[in-house]
Design goal:
The structure is a single chain. By secondary structure, the chain is α+β, with helices and mostly antiparallel strands. Helix content is 31%, strand content 24%. The strands form two sheets. Strands 4, 7, 8, 9, 10, 11, 13, 14, 16, 17 and 20 form an eleven-stranded antiparallel sheet that branches. Strand 16 and strand 17 form a beta hairpin. Helix 2 runs antiparallel to helix 3, helix 3 runs antiparallel to helix 4 and helix 7 runs antiparallel to helix 8. The longest helix has 21 residues. The radius of gyration is 23 Å and the shape is globular. It starts with 5 loop residues before the first helix and ends with a strand.
Length: 506
């Protein structure tokens, strides 16, 4: 029985929307409409990339390689495109490969997969993976923020490792991909919805892309392992993805339906069988702890890669991410903390068995580097190393999440502690109501905050009355992790004071 290529259907639907096509989208339009592919378009795509090489960031180079992977997939999915394989092969051979180091495993996996599809020789490197299945973005210490797994990129890596494992019958790669897929389940709440702000930098926080990669990864493992569990996880990701695409008209990349079609040709997916995710999350390798329940799911962490310290889903409300942030507030490159298992040594994680669903995590983590813009690989998103640290205890009990923080070291003067929230409205000190997507910016002394959704509410309170609190309505979408509000506390942070916030699920 043929499996439905849902991403293809969604992609074809968006082709009917008005808008200017990029060179790759023109190729995708020709491919899915079964039209001819002028060689000039492929040449234009590659030439455009090569003319901009010196201005590209590492992420730009990865995107170009994804475009070449898309072309290579086309030659395997439609015999009419096979004559273009040599052109793609020559283009990739000529593309410089020295923008990345070997410890950045996503680049090597992507490079090897393209090479395999265009008949170039490859050398599969040994895999570096934590025992629990998580994969640091890079393990050479080149990027201060690369010591943790980054959700989107880890899911993408799992897809490439699985496809390489199939192509070369490599058991190590297949097992590593399966472990990634199992670990990615930690990033889902009770309803299989992803914690969008967990281990994801704001610049990479596109919900549609995350859902695409996780759907493809789970689908691929469902086929390879005949796993009804993975088939069900894939089905849930696809449901959220379809709703997001159809309700917001967000565009998906052409590589997604191509990978889906390629994966479906590998075999039949088993029938999805519903299952429940574990109530508790406890992963020492990523300092991740949390609970899941039908009404609420919460994860907290002591590690980061310019990422936040936790995420809460409470019915339709979301505390997407929170943590320290360098000013200005509109630049999230200075948000969060940095460090993983090799650099953060003091982490205490405890589940409170006397109170079901309660836990505590206490840790010390370095504040993220102050942003410095550079596209070169060594400096990419690295910035000026911060010499300040955060000592934080997070405790969840009786529907209260308490944050007790101290800062030490050379604490910067221009620093805030911020919360990014998805909610219908925000009420300040019981008197002033602020709505998202407005210009109603609140700026005054700290006071009680009440976030409201369709059916639930939660509050954010602090006993501190000095300093300043700002509530800034946001526009949703892919910016600021899709948040509706930014709530910022600008205190004179210093080492002799403790700072406390309490989130109460009312």
């Amino acid at each position: 029985m043929d499996q439905e290529n849902t991403l293809k259907r969604l992609y074809e639907k968006q082709l009917s929307l008005s808008g200017s096509d990029s060179p790759l989208e023109k190729i995708g339009r020709a491919f899915f409409k079964k039209g001819s592919l002028p060689a000039s378009i492929v040449t234009q795509l590659v030439a455009f990339s090569e003319s901009q090489l010196n201005k590209k960031s590492p992420w730009d180079h990865l995107e170009t390689w994804r475009e070449l992977l898309s072309l290579a997939l086309m030659t395997h999915l439609d015999a009419a495109y096979d004559p273009h394989r040599n052109e793609i092969k020559e283009s990739f051979q000529n593309y410089p490969k020295d923008y990345f180091w070997k410890e950045f495993q996503l680049s090597s996996a992507l490079s090897n997969l393209i090479s395999a599809l265009v008949d170039l020789p490859i050398n599969l490197p040994a895999i570096h993976q934590l025992q629990n299945g998580a994969v640091p973005l890079e393990f050479g210490g080149h990027w201060t923020w690369g010591e943790i797994p980054h959700l989107r990129h880890q899911a993408e890596l799992g897809i490439y490792w699985a496809l390489l494992g199939i192509k070369y019958e490599n058991a190590e790669y297949l097992a590593a991909a399966e472990k990634i897929a199992e670990w990615q389940l930690n990033s889902l709440d009770y309803h299989f919805y992803p914690f969008v702000g967990l281990f994801v930098q704001e610049a990479d926080a596109a919900l549609c892309a995350l859902l695409c990669d996780q759907y493809l990864l789970f689908s691929l493992l469902a086929i390879l392992k005949s796993s009804s569990r993975m088939a069900y996880a894939a089905k849930r990701q696809l449901g959220y993805l379809e709703h997001s695409v159809l309700s917001t008209q967000v565009r998906i990349s052409v590589i997604a339906p191509l990978l889906e079609e390629y994966i479906h040709k590998l075999g039949e997916s088993p029938v999805p069988i519903p299952f429940g995710l574990p109530q508790s999350i406890h992963d020492v390798d990523t300092a991740l702890i949390g609970v899941r329940a039908e009404e609420k799911s919460l994860v907290c962490t002591g590690f980061g890669g310019r990422t936040g310290l936790g995420s809460l889903h409470f019915d339709d409300l979301q505390l997407i991410s929170y943590g320290p942030q360098h000013l200005p507030l509109g630049d999230c490159r200075g948000f969060g903390v940095e460090g993983g298992r090799y650099s953060v040594k003091t982490v205490v994680m405890q589940a409170d068995h006397a109170h079901k669903g309660s836990f505590l995590i206490q840790h010390q983590a370095r504040l993220s580097a102050k942003p410095v813009y550079s596209t070169s690989s060594p400096l990419f998103r690295n910035g000026q190393r911060c010499q300040a640290w955060l000592d934080l205890k997070q405790e969840f009990k009786h529907d209260y999440l308490s944050l007790d923080a101290r800062f030490f070291g050379d604490t910067p003067k221009e620093l805030a502690f911020t919360f990014f929230v998805k909610a219908k409205s925000c009420t300040i000190q019981e008197t002033r109501k602020v709505l998202p997507r407005t210009l109603d910016h609140y700026q005054s002394s700290p006071g009680a905050i009440l976030l409201s959704g369709e059916t639930q509410q939660f509050s954010i309170e602090t006993p501190h009355r000095h300093g300043e609190m700002q509530v800034i309505p946001l526009g949703g979408g892919d910016n600021f992790w899709g948040a509706d509000f930014l709530i910022a506390y600008l205190f004179d942070f210093h080492s002799t004071a403790a700072y406390t916030w309490q989130i109460n699920l009312t």
